[in-house]
Amino acid sequence: MDEITHRTLEVNGIKMHIAEQGKGPLVLLLHGFPGLWYSWRHQIPVIAKAGYHVVAPDQRGYGQTEAPADPSKYTFLHLVGDVVGLIEALGEKQVYLIGHDWGAVVTWMTAVLRPDLLKCVITLSVGFVPRDPKLSLLGKMKALCGERVYMQEWQEPGKAEADFSRDIKQAFLKLYSNRASDIFSAPEGKSVLESIPSYDEPPKWITHEELQVYVDTFKKTGFTGGLNWYRNIDRSWELMAPWTNVGTPVPALVIIGDHDLGFDFARKYHESPLFKTDVPNGEFTDGRGPIVILIYTELQRPRHVVVPDQRGSGQTEAPEDPTKYTILYLVGDIVTLTEGLGAKQIYVICDDWGPKVAWMTAVLRPDLLKCLITLNLGFTPRDPNLSMVSQMKALFGERVYIHEWQEPGKAEADFNRDIKGALVKSYSHRGTGTWMAAEGKSVLETMPANQKPDWLRDEVLQVYVENYKRTGFTGARAGIGMWIDLGS
Question: What residues does the AB hydrolase-1 domain cover (predicted)?
Answer without folding.
Answer: 25-261, 302-409
